[in-house]
Amino acid sequence: MSLSKKEGHRTLTSSLVLGAFMLFVSFVSRGECQTTPPPTPCSSYKSCDQCAPNTKCLWCFTTNNCTDYPVSWLLPPPSLCPLSQARWGMCWLNFEGLIIALAVLGGTALVSIVVCCCCCCCCCKKRSVRNVERKARHDQIRKKYGLMSDSDHPYSKFENE
Fold this sequence. Notes:
Helix content: 55-70%
Structural class: mainly alpha
Largest sheet: 3 strands, antiparallel
Mean pLDDT: 79
Radius of gyration: 37 Å
Number of strands: 3
Low-confidence stretches: none
Strand content: 5-15%
Distance between the termini: 79 Å
């Protein structure tokens, strides 16, 4: 290995070691300085406006209390709170409305994708049919004016001489 390659290798190695050390120090010092406060329990919230914006909490208008969102279920079970009375994320939209809105948006997106795919397939098919028709029409014109040899029989070239 030449002298310049060894120096470049040493410089690269020392730069990597220095960078790793600085990264380690920044993580250690950051961990010592920052402390996270304990999370506020959902039961401490007394109104929907306080409870609903917290994504870990669920407000139920039937019982007028805030509970932990049942993360083991996709939707809160009816035993916890009826869907029409449950609020999560915002107080003005219940779970039934949220489900309907998401279903409409998903259905619209799905139908749009299917329609776009069908339109693309139909357009490509029409374009290829038009290209074949145009080529046949051009070939007829070329034959009519003698610009294209008639390939029906191999001696057509000699008939015009």
